[in-house]
Structure formats: structure tokens, C-alpha cells
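Escalation from tier 1.

The customer reports that the assembly of two entities below gives different C-alpha cells on two consecutive runs. Tier 1 could not reproduce it. I'm attaching the input and our single run for tier 2 to review.
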Amino acid sequence: MTDRGSKIVRVRGIVKDFRPGFGLRRKRVLHGVTFDVQDNEIFGFVGPNGAGKTTTLKVLMGLIRPTEGRARVLGHDVGESEFRHRIGFLPENPYFYPFLTAREILDFYARLSGVPASDRAQRVDRLLGLVNLGHAMDTRLRTFSKGMLQRVGIAQALIHDPKVVFLDEPMSGLDPLGRVEIRDLILSLRSEGKTVFMNTYILPDVESICDRVAIIVKGRIRHQGQIEDFLPTDRRETDVLISSLPPETAEELGERFDLEMRGLGERLELRVGEKDVSGVLDAVIRVGAEVVSVTPHRNSLEDVFLDAVRAGDEPGNDGGTN
Amino acid sequence: MGALLRIQALATNTFREAIRNKLLYTLLGFSFLMIASGVLLATLSYVEMDEILQDMGMSAIRFFSAGIATFVGIGLIYNEVDRRTIFTILSKPVSRSEFLLGKWAGLTFTVWLQLALMALAFAVVSGLAGAPLSSDHFLAIALIGLELMVLVAIATLFSAFTTPMLAALFTLGFWMIGHLTRDLHALSQQSDLEGVAAAGSWVFQLLPDFEVFNKTLEAVQGLPIGAGEVSLAIVYAVGYTGCTLLLGSMIFSRRDFK
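Tier 1 run:
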């Protein structure tokens, strides 16, 4: 994926400290977060729970003020409110006034977003249809499931036809069919020329739809780049799952071959380089151990993600580089 | 124009939410009971029965209206933050000041509506008891409406940065003190200590003076309520409400929503 154009979101050195309670020491949750989102791309902001994804998004939405650093969206400081008619936001686990119907809540958000009265009803109906809630337009939100509320959340984020859409865990609470639908919807937003910023920890979704990715762990950006940078490389490896392997043979394999070993209960998983696969299999079969499976390994975003998380978990390593 | 439409949308929504609050109906029901019970209380006296009936009725209106303004108002902002509905609202082109104004306007409209219902109950009870009713009675009730406008602003201010429990304590505290500030001021001015007198004046300027809006005695006794007093009450209500909401906006705009 090539650079699609200008930088729509610019985040520079964002630091955020929170005081957990009165009189307690401040806790730093974001450590100089820096990244850019370019025009008309789907940007995946990936990290484990508690990494700082939602805090970063709240800074971008002006819901919390950074302790240090600057963030700009569409050329405006995030503290301003005037440019917000050009952005849409889906918070994590959205909640809406339960006494309103789906149609009424979208009408409310359309009014707040300055959608002209003449377009409002038509746009509300169209969006509810788009997120497959056409059948529940006049149903009160208190009866909605989590997945249905998520769809309302996506609809309200798009009600004013924004240029940039910020989605916090957009697939949360959706069944497999719903996830496919929302994935297609996000792709269609890009086709319409919109930019999508997506917080998530569901890596297959990121792999399948994002153009660029940033991985955040413990409040620091560990990796960022084009999605291709994270996907299969030339290095080919195979996962070999073995049972009943004597410990001395396992030790011998470790010495003879360049491989990674991981215990899975009574089984052992070996990640073996392409040239060593037949040698390892010969050695295993010779001692009478059982080969449970042999699976070609595809280096993926998951590996990079897990490596970044593990690096962040190492004692004394709460830092990283951009 | 856009800001006004957004404030109107927020106010309408606040009104729709407030009228679903069961506490509002409980307090409204009690106010009707108290207004009606004035008839019983009046029978205990041989003189000034009408005055007792109407004094009781207007006091009930003031007391229960203040209760509704306080107990519905204290959760106004807190609930939006707690339920995270504020996230989607503030992601729209809505400034925090507009949000606060919309919430205040919606609740003020709600308490004015319940005030109108109480006034209707007061008029019905007075009519049934044969007590005289004049325009001054309704003027006095309208002044209670101005008092409620200020009280909702105070509840909104506290709701913008503290918990409902503390906001209730502060708001009710302000309401009670607001009816005593003149007495407190007068007392402080009698002090021999210059500092006490100065502090008394300073506190009097800062705290609300709700007695500006209290014309119950005049209405019940058939005394005239001067146009100057009404004008002063209007200016005072608008000014105090404006300053309170401005302070609330300044505090609210600095808040982080975790």
C-alpha cells in the first residue's frame, strides 16, 4: 500500500498521566505516543487490554487532555469542537438513552451534528438499513442486545457523513455474520474516500482490512508501518507437534537444529526452519515418538504483536521505541 | 444559530429523560398532598384561614420544587459521564458549554412544568376552599420559577464535577443558606469586629439571596408586589444563573472523561 495522501491525524509525543485517587502518585499511561494516519486509509491501532488504545482515542476525541504533546485531526487541535462535524466516533461498548428508539437516537445525533432537517429522516432510515436495524427502527433501545447497540453506535458515527471515522473495538459484541458485515462496511467507507481509525485487538480483522498498523503496548508504540511489513516474510518455518518425546531427545534436537520449543502439556511444539524439517522428523520417528501434526507456519501480525507484548512484559522493560 | 439548535436538542432530550424520573412524580405527588392538606390545617384556626391555606400551599410549592430541582439536577451531568453517553455527544460539534447549557435548560423547563402543575393544584384547592385568588399569587409563583432557575444552575454546577451525593449536599446547603443570607448579613453587620462585618458582606455578595424571589407573604396578605421588585428578581436570576453556568462551564471544560 502506498502513501494515499496527506496526514489526516497527527499525534506527536502524547503523554498522559492519571492520578488514581486523591493523594496518590500519578500514573503514566501514555509515554510519548507518536503516529500519523493518512488520508483514505484504514489504520489499525492494535494493543492488548490496558495498553492505552482507548486513552489515545479519547485524547483524539478531546475527551481527555494530554499531559504533554500535541494531536491534530484534519489540521485542527483536538481540543476544538468546530471540526467535529467532519469526524465520527464509536466508543467502546456504546450506551445510549434507553428510553429512545433507534430512530429517535439517530435523529438526536443528527441534530447535534447539524444535519439539515430536510435530510435528517432520510439519512436516519438509510443508516439504520445499512447496519441492518431497519426492522428495529421504532423499538426502544432498552430492549436491544449488545450487538444491536454496537450497530446503533456505528450508525450514529456515520450519521453526518464524516470524513474521518474513529472506531473503538467496532467488532465487539457482534456475531460472526455481524463482524463480516461491519468489516465490509469499513471497507466501503474507504471506497467512499473516508479515513478509518480502528482500535482493536482482533488481529485477523486488522490483517484483512487495515492498510497500516501501529502496535501499542504499555502506553508506548512498539511497531508501526504498512500491513505488508507484518505479513508473511521469506523466512519459512514449520510447526511440528510431537507427543511422547523423551527429554534427552528433545535436548539433543535443541542442540542439533535451529528451532524454538514450546511445551503444550504432554506435547511439545517445535518451530523448525524449512531446511531442518526432514532431519527433525527423522530424529523424532527414530526414537518412537508420535508426530501429531506438521503445519507450515505463516509469520503474521500475531507474531509481531505477541513479541511486542512479551517484550513489554519483560522485567525492567516498560519502554520501547517508535 | 447552530449552537442554539444543538442546545435545544440537548434540552429536549434532558426533558424527555427527566420526566421519566420516578422521584419527580413522588415529590410532585407529595406536593399535591401538602397543598391539599392546607385545607385541614386551616380548619385548626378560627382566623386567617385563607392565609394559612395559601401560605401552606405556596410553601409546599417552594419546598417540593426545590427538592425536584435538586434531586433530579444532581445526576444531570454525573449520569451522562457514568453511563458514557457523553462520549458520543461530545464527539459531535458540541462544545462543553453548550452541553451544560442544554442540560440546564432541559431541567429548568421540566421544573417549570411541574411548577405549573403545582400552581394549578394550588388554584384548584384555593378555589374549592373559597380563598381569594389574585394575579399576585401567580406572580409570586412565577418568582419561585426564577428561584428554581438559579437552583438548577447551582445543581448543574455541582453535578459537573462531583458525585450526586455531594452535589445534593452542596445544592441543598446553598438553597437553605440562600434563604438565610439576609439574616446572616444583618447579623454580621452588628459585629464589633470589622473582619466579621467585611466577611459577612463578602459572603452575602457571593452566595445566592433566594429571599429576592420570596413574595409569598405579599401574595397571601394581599399586599402589592412592586414592579421594581419583580424586575430586580429577574435581573438577579439571570445574572446569578449566568455566572453559575459560566463557572460550571470553566470547570467542566477542564475535566477528563476516563
